[in-house]
Amino acid sequence: MQITYTTKEESKAAQQEAFLKLSGYERVASFIRLSKSIQAIFPSNVPERQTNNFVIDYHKLRNKER
What we know:
Helices cover 59% and strands 0% of the residues. It is an all-alpha fold.
């Protein structure tokens, strides 16, 4: 592990550069992993209902990753 001291602007620029180096697939996968971790930390209390919206079912994704 390496510790660096940078300004907020430098840090954001480095993060953006690293993200833009990823392929399209890797960007989407990164977004899904981030969404999944946020949902684990802050679960929703809203009951599920049937809609015509696009829904990512993390439980089905988890089974396919194994």
